Write a sequence for this structure.
């Protein structure tokens, strides 16, 4: 059974840090493109960061967030520093997985990040 399970969310004060993890089971990352998305309250989901051949970041998180992957652990991470109120959102990981030329898109259930004083 294919699963992506996020962890590491929580409540943090402005300026604080969190590290999100997303562990995959039922498939291996290989050269998949892995991404973190977030959906703030009342807003649409947006791409935060992705890692494939290189890394890409939303302008709003550049210099503060770092995406990384450990293929041996089948896990992707999102290190978040200097957190702001506007980073409050449900964060979900996504894997764009290819098998024999077929594309599969897998999503996790999400982990809540709340920035609050």
């Amino acid at each position: 059974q294919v699963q992506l399970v996020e962890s590491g969310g929580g409540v943090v004060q402005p300026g604080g840090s969190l590290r999100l993890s997303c562990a995959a089971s039922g498939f291996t990352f290989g050269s998949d493109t892995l991404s973190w998305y977030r959906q703030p309250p009342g807003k649409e989901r947006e791409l935060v960061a992705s890692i494939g051949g290189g890394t890409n970041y939303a302008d709003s998180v550049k210099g503060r967030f770092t995406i990384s992957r450990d293929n041996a652990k089948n896990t992707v991470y999102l290190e978040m520093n200097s957190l702001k109120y506007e980073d409050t959102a449900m964060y979900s990981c996504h894997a764009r997985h290819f098998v024999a030329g077929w594309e599969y898109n897998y999503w996790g259930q999400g982990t809540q990040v709340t920035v609050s004083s």
In short: DSSP finds no helices and eleven strands in the chain.
